[in-house]
Each structure stands twice: as structure tokens, then as C-alpha cells.
Amino acid sequence: MDSSRIPFEIHQRALRRTLPIYTKSLGDAMSLKARKSRHTASLHGWCPYQYRIDAILEHIRHSGVLPHAEDYHLILLHYAVWGNIQGSLDLLHALVVSGSSPTERTYELVLYSFVRKLALVRHWEHTKEDLLPLVEKEFLTLLKDMKDRDIRRTRLVNDHCVRIAGAVSPRQNFDSMIAAIYGIDVKQPDAVPPQLVKEFLAASKEGKSPNSEVETERKLPPASTAILNTLVRVLGTGPNRSLAAMVGAFESLTSPMPPLRPKREAYGYEDGVDDDEPHYVPPAPFLIRRAQPSRPNTQTYTYLIQNCLAMRNKTLAKHYLDQAINDERSQEQLIRARIRHIMHYVDGSVKITAESIARLRREVPRATVGVNAYMFKALYRYADEWGDSALIRWVTARELAVIQEKKQSVALLTALSEAMDLVDAGQSLESSTPRDGSTQQQQRDRYSTCM
């Protein structure tokens, strides 16, 4: 059949059924088969469905109809997952040539391809040396194009720009970008950058903020977990690494800023006063703080432990391992409490229904911190390198405790999963046959213990 006679909706449906879902593409991009694209310093990325995309776009052109912006965005997302920078740039050019105007979402996806490419080649040093200049050149060109088109820089665009700048830009430019976008002064991360304070004061003098006895609260944009990881990685690696800057940035961003004290409590030490008596210090005309603190994840603690050990500070590495263990334990307790609330756990018994299962899948939060083998391996390597037997004993004790807790969690959640599968299959707990040969009473006790 002539492709020009096929309705455009059929082409759109074929395009969507051709490309896999986003999560499957992420898994495939990290597979062993995709590693061959990481050995070459090229902006192109290995894409297993490239021929399908090219064929469908060619048929659409023959039909005389231009693809919609959503069609381009779908392909851009697929290119971004595989780190295909050149494919994303070519598709952006095709979108502009077709007469369409790129939007914020278009540039978000193109920048995401830069982020993914840098993540895929992160551990290939010989590839990064030749690739980073190419990425930096195209990145600066793309930023200039955004400025010429007056594209608004969304939060996601800012996140991508900071992550790319952390890998390809000089440290001074990276620090300036962090200060301008998120109000993070790398040299003093617990304070607001001076340029932002001047901007706020100028806005207050011009009458752009309320002028009353009640202090005005100014909130800085929150730094996402990805930005927190980028800061920890950049400040803790490279020739200009700094342990104080890395730890200061992490602690100040993950902890809420202290609130402004009332006037009756606003006492301090004034400059030029010789005695040690506190004097009244008037508070600032407005309160500057972040909308919400950043939330660390498993990758954050892995970076912290590895960077602290690289800078020969095992004390801080041990501290952050303990903090990761405590965070994982706290999140697990919150998850179990939520499960108990949904399952109406009363007097040691539960009743699992289809409605409660639906609520479990919808309302139970996901854990963001999990202690993994990379954290322990980093400490073991450091202890072996320096012959620190005391550190080996300390890490071994922590590791055994974590393994025991994880075994218990796996057993309990596996029991709950089996119960949910039985209810989904339309069986009751009383009429089902246990998989492990246990009695019905033992099976019910296991489900109740899971709560």
C-alpha cells in the first residue's frame, strides 16, 4: 500500500507501539549489549530502534503531513535514554525546519540526552577525555539557542544544565551557575550568596515586596536530589576537591535552614564592641530560606563515603555509613507503619482484601535510601590499604547487622507479596495451599507478622 494513502493517525500509533516504555529503555541502556557505544568518543549513541524510527518518519514525510510536537518529544525521550546527543540535536533541527517552534519540554529532553550520555560514560576515563570537549561545545551552543529563542528555563532545564556543567565546565563557572540558579554559595553553603541578598534588598526598596512590621519570607528554589548528588560528586572529586565544601554543601542542603528569631530574642555580638556582653542586633528585613531541604538517596551516601575515603577521612566515612543505615531503618519503619494503617492491623490479625491491596500499591511510599555493597567495599579497600584492622572489625559488625535486618525485611515482604498474589487470583488465605508446605496457621501467622 502506498504510504501516502495511510492516515496520519496510523503512523502515530505505529510510532508509539514501536518504541518500548520508558522504564524498559532505561534498563536496556544500562545492559551489557549497550556498552559498545561507550568506548567511542562520539555524540552518537547506540539505539536499537533507530531503523524503525527512520522508517516511520520517512513514511510520514511521504504522506505530506508534518509530525506533531508530541511525536518529536516521544522520539527525543527515546534518544535521551540511550544518550544519543547527535540524534537529539538532529531531531531538534528537523523540528525547527518543519516550521514548528521548540518548547521548554523540547529542550528538557535534548538536555536530558546530554545527562544520560555523561552518565553512561562516567567510568570510561579514556572515552571521557575526548568526549567532554565535544559535549561542552554543543552544550554552550544549545544554551545560546535557548537564549535567542527566549525559552523559559524551567526547573528541570536548570537541573540538567547544572549536572552537565558539573562534568564539562570549569569549576569557577560551575560555582557561578549554582549560586545564580539555586542560591548555593559553595564557599559558604549555609549562607545566601551576596548577589541574591543585594537583589532582594533592591526589590524591597523599589516596593516590590510588602513593607510592614512582619518580616517578608523569601524562599529559594529547592535543590533536587540529582543536584545534591552532582554537588557532592563535583566538590569531592577532581583536582579542586574540598572535603569542607562537600560536607558543608551536603549538611546545609539536607537540613532545614534555621528560622528567623523574634526581635526579643535577636541578640548577638555587634562589630566594634569590645566587651563580651550581647547587644541587640535587629533582624534582617526578610527571611531567606529554601522551600524544602534536599533529600539524599543511596547514590548520595555512596558518593560521600567514597569521596571521604579518597581524601583520607575515615571518621566522616563511618559517620555517613551510620547515617545511611539509620535513614534506611527510618524509611522502613515508616513503610511498615503505613502498611499497618492500610491493612487495619488489630490484635495481631489482618484481613487482606482487594481494596486494601489497591491502597497498598497506591499509597505506600518507596524507600530512597538503601545500604549497598559499594559502601562496605569502599571501607574494606581503605582498611586493607592502610592495614586498619580496627576499621575492618567495625565495618564487619555493621555489615552483619545490616544483612540480618535485610533478611528479615525480605522474608516479611515476601510473605505479604504471596498474600497479595493469592487475593489477586481470587483465592482466600484459608483455602490456599502454602508454597513451602507450612500449615494454614503458620501461613496466617506469617502474614500477620508482616504487618
Keywords:
451 residues; mainly alpha; two-stranded parallel ribbon
Q: Can you describe this structure?
A:
- The chain has 451 residues and is mostly helical.
- Among the domains are: 1-169; 326-450, no CATH class.
- Helix content is 61%, strand content 3%.
- It has 18 helices and four strands.
- The protein has helices at 8-18, 22-29, 50-62, 69-81, 85-97, 104-120, 125-148, 155-168, 171-182, 194-205, 225-236, 243-254, 298-310, 314-343, 354-363, 373-386, 389-424, 440-450; strands at residues 216-220, 267-268, 279-280, 286-290.
- The strands form two sheets. Strands 1-4 form a two-stranded parallel sheet.
- The longest helix is centred in the C-terminal third of the chain and has 36 residues, at 389-424.
- It is globular, with a radius of gyration of 27 Å.
- The protein starts with 7 loop residues before the first helix and ends with a helix.
- The model is unreliable at 209-216, 259-271, 278-285 and 430-434 (pLDDT under 50).
Please write out the topology.
Blueprint (H helix, E strand, L loop, with lengths): L7 H11 L3 H8 L20 H13 L6 H13 L3 H13 L6 H17 L4 H24 L6 H14 L2 H12 L11 H12 L10 E5 L4 H12 L6 H12 L12 E2 L10 E2 L5 E5 L7 H13 L3 H30 L10 H10 L9 H14 L2 H36 L15 H11 L1
Parallel strand pairs: 1-4
Antiparallel strand pairs: 2-3
Helix pairs in contact: 1-3, 4-5, 4-6, 5-6, 6-7, 6-8, 7-8, 8-9, 8-11, 11-12, 11-13, 13-14, 13-16, 14-15, 14-16, 16-17, 17-18
